[in-house]
Each structure stands twice: as structure tokens, then as C-alpha cells.
Backbone:
């Protein structure tokens, strides 16, 4: 384990090592069957941790997603049924 | 060196000059003003190679020295009262980042009501901020403390606040022996930090620590604070070897050897206490004095040893932890708890907002302590309260 330096001085890029996803209570679950690929979730995510997979559907990097729920709130849902493509679920730890 | 007669504030400015700080930032506030005014003159006259940063508040002054210290500069600031508590947020950051900054606090009471006069409420309110806090009795002691403070701060990477009574010491003229600067540089070589901000090798100071790390950072700081007790004592001795003066390390004892009653105090009031004790000794009363020079880290062992043979101790608190008692009294009482034989402990709230503390006040305090030798006496006493005003 890396020892803490005097005064907590750290090298650049420390957020790559400090995973902050552990703060999450609710976890966004992405349902591709409802997704219209509008990318609003990507644009609204305050952490910038929603990405597109090879098929063009969004997914979250759970190492950094804090479960704020903004993506699920902004998601317009299925084109016709308007059923959400992102739902927030209580995360069991 | 020969003695000169100087105002307390100007003598401090000379001591700071001898320590060669590279960055000074301060905002003027009574009764600290003369210190930073004089340093400003010294820099303007080219006697000190230093960046003097004028700012719009004490919050900024503290922030400037924080940033400058993180780049590896030796830094200095001074403040008091409202200015000190405006610095409060930054002061916690400075100790957490382990920056060896030295500031002088010209002790003054806190508003409201407005007071520009002296007591210890301002620095006492900052006691948990991770700074070493020292209190001086007279100008020479305080001037010497500044040289020692940088030494301790830079060895342990813990900031130091030197407290002196506003007006009573800042504005008084006393004979004082100043420094040969080459001698000071020998005692206090230039500051060489292990980590510092450098664009070529970036580092983050004051990064966040999640619950898995924060507690360890506090533990490390506390362990080093405990180490500081030995360092402070040692540096006082090393200073004596170099400069020939030692006013005590953590505490100073005065006529305590055979004392039944021991009075404890911090700062300039100790001078009055010593005079009062001399007078009482002539009357055959066995009274002694302990001067607490270092308040944080609290010198538990030294105080425990010094009061072990006393029957009654009286703490003179120039502060009040509202809703409880004098803050230093709480600490002194806690020391007694671990002792097999405990003297009775009494607290005397004195000198708030610079109410005069005279020899008569001290004699009255000693009389209450004497009464406690044989009778039950209440533990907390506010001295010289004018009942007609209440």
C-alpha cells in the first residue's frame, strides 16, 4: 500500500487511483431496448463518466459514477412508449 | 550584542528580518499594525530581500503565505482578534498541508461588543487547528521565540503561532538584545522543503482524502505534534548555546520548589504574578508560579511534575470557554486526573478585554487559594467584576 506523504502531497493524476464510485447509493442501470441514442445522459453527466459502447448505447464507468441520477432524470426514454432507458436502483454493498 | 530600547512590535519586526522570510503578507489590525508596518519599512528600504504582499483581508494574507510556503519560501504574517478568526479556515489548511509558516498573534479579545484590548480569546479559539501555540511574557522572550519558531516549524513541518499580549507587549518599550544575522543564519539555515510546487514537477497540495485515508492524516499530524514537545524543549536549549538566553522550554517554574500554592498563567500576566509572589514570599507565604510557554501541544508531563507537590493550584485564564470554564483550566485539571495525589484546582477568569490585573488581583487570587487549603471553595472565580454594572 502506498504510504501517505507528509501533508497528503500527491502526484498528478491521483483521481485515476482514487475510485470515487464508492460514494454511490443508487446505481444507474442502462436499458438499451428503450434507448433512442440521444446522448443526453452523456452531456448531462456532471462527472463525465457516461460513455458509448461499440453499438452506440451509453454505459457508465461505475468507478466514478456517484449515482446522482441526473442521467436518468434527463433521459427522454423510448421514442414511442417513453419508457426510461436509465433507471436508478438501490445498490446493495 | 548590545541592548537597545525598542517598542515590542518593532523588536519583533527586527527578529523576523533576521529570519529572512522571502514572502510576508499581512493586513493591518490593531494592535498588530506596528509589527507589519515596520516590516513593510524594512522591505521598502531594501534591508530584506522579500516579497511584501498587500492584501484586502486576513483571509487573503493567510492564503498568500499558504501558497508562497507551498512553493518553498520561508513566510511570515501577523494578525490578531477578528483578523485571526477570519484566517481560521486557512489556518487549518496550513497545518493539514504541513507548511511551516510562522505567524504572530497580538492577542486581543473578540467582538461583540467591540474591544480592541487584550485577552487570549482569539488564539484560544484556534487551539484545535494543528498549530503550535507559544505565549511569551516579555519582549526579549517573544523576540527569541520567533527564531526558535522557524527552527521547530521547519524541522517538524508544523506551523507555529507566537502569541503576545496586545498593547501590554506590542506597544511597550523594553530593553532588548537583537541578533547578529549571520549567527541567526547559522542557527536557522535557509528553508529546504522536501515537497514544493514546481511547474516542472507538478504535485497536488491539499488534495482530498476519502474516509479510508483522512483519519491517518490526522493521526500523523497528532503524532508529530506530540514529538514537538521534545523538539521545543531541545530548540530552547540549542538556542541558549548559541545566543546565551533561555526563558524555559515548555514551562518556566518560579519559586515552586516548596510552594503549597502554585499559580499558573500565560503571557505578560506572569510578570505581575512573579512580583506578587515575591511580595507574598516576604510575608512567609509559600506561593510559586508556573508560566505555560507552550499551550499546543499541551505540556502535560512538565506541568504534572511541576504541580505534584502543591496543595492548591490556581489557573489564571484570560479567556472563557463559554458554557464551561477557562480553557487552560480544563487542560490543567485533566493533567491532575492521572496523578495519585491531586492538588485542589481553582480557576480565575481575569483580564478579559484588558481589565487590569494588578498585584492586588493576584494577592486576592492567592488568598482564595489559601482559603482552599483548609475549606471547600467553589472552583471558578471571575476576578474584579463590578457588580454595580450587572
Residues:
Amino acid at each position: 500500500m502506498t504510504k501517505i506523504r507528509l501533508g497528503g502531497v500527491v502526484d498528478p493524476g491521483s483521481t485515476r487511483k482514487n475510485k470515487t464510485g464508492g460514494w454511490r447509493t443508487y446505481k444507474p442501470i442502462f436499458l438499451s431496448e428503450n434507448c433512442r441514442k440521444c446522448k443526453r445522459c452523456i452531456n448531462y453527466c456532471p462527472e463525465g463518466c457516461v460513455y458509448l459502447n461499440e453499438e452506440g448505447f451509453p454505459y457508465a464507468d461505475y468507478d466514478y459514477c456517484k449515482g446522482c441520477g441526473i442521467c436518468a432524470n434527463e433521459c427522454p426514454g423510448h421514442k414511442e412508449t417513453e419508457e426510461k432507458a436509465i433507471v436508478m436502483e438501490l445498490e446493495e454493498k | 550584542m548590545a541592548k537597545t530600547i525598542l517598542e515590542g512590535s518593532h523588536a519583533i519586526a527586527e527578529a523576523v528580518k533576521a529570519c529572512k522570510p522571502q514572502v510576508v503578507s499581512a493586513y493591518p489590525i490593531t494592535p498588530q499594525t506596528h509589527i507589519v508596518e515596520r516590516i513593510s519599512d524594512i522591505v521598502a528600504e531594501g534591508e530584506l530581500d522579500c516579497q511584501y504582499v498587500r492584501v484586502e483581508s486576513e483571509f487573503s494574507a493567510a492564503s498568500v503565505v499558504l501558497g508562497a510556503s507551498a512553493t518553498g519560501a520561508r513566510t511570515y504574517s501577523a494578525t490578531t482578534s477578528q483578523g485571526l478568526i477570519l484566517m481560521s479556515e486557512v489556518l487549518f489548511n496550513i497545518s493539514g498541508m504541513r507548511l511551516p509558516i510562522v505567524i504572530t498573534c497580538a492577542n486581543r479579545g473578540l467582538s461583540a461588543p467591540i474591544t480592541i484590548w487584550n485577552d487570549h480569546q482569539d488564539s484560544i479559539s484556534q487551539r484545535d487547528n494543528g498549530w503550535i501555540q507559544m505565549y511569551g511574557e516579555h519582549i526579549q522572550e517573544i523576540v527569541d521565540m520567533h527564531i526558535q519558531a522557524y527552527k521547530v516549524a521547519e524541522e517538524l513541518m508544523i506551523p507555529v503561532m507566537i502569541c503576545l499580549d496586545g498593547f501590554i507587549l506590542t506597544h511597550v518599550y523594553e530593553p532588548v538584545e537583537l541578533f547578529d544575522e549571520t549567527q541567526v543564519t547559522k542557527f536557522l539555515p535557509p528553508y529546504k522543503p522536501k515537497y514544493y510546487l514546481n511547474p516542472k514537477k507538478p504535485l497536488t497540495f491539499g488534495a482530498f482524502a476519502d474516509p479510508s485515508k483522512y483519519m491517518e492524516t490526522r493521526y500523523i499530524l497528532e503524532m508529530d505534534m506530540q514529538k514537538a514537545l521534545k523538539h521545543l524543549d531541545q530548540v530552547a536549549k540549542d538556542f541558549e548555546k548559541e545566543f546565551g538566553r533561555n526563558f524555559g522550554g515548555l514551562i518556566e517554574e518560579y519559586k515552586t520548589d516548596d510552594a503549597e500554592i502554585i499559580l499558573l498563567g500565560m503571557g505578560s500576566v506572569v510578570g505581575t504574578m512573579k512580583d506578587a509572589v515575591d511580595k507574598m514570599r516576604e510575608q512567609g507565604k509559600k506561593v510559586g508560579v508556573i508560566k505555560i510557554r507552550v499551550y499546543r501541544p499541551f505540556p502535560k508531563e512538565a506541568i504534572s511534575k511541576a504541580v505534584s507537590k502543591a496543595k492548591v493550584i490556581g489557573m489564571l485564564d484570560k479567556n472563557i470557554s463559554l458554557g464551561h470554564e477557562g480553557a487552560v483550566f480544563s487542560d490543567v485539571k485533566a493533567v491532575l486526573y492521572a496523578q495519585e495525589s491531586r492538588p485542589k484546582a481553582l480557576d480565575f477568569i481575569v483580564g478579559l478585554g484588558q481589565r487590569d490585573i494588578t498585584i492586588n488581583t493576584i494577592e486576592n487570587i492567592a488568598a482564595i487559594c489559601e482559603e482552599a487549603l483548609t475549606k471547600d471553595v467553589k472552583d471558578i472565580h471571575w476576578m474584579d467584576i463590578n457588580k454595580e454594572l450587572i
Q: What stands out?
A: The interface with chain B takes residues 4-12, 14, 18, 20, 22 of chain A (CB under 8 Å).
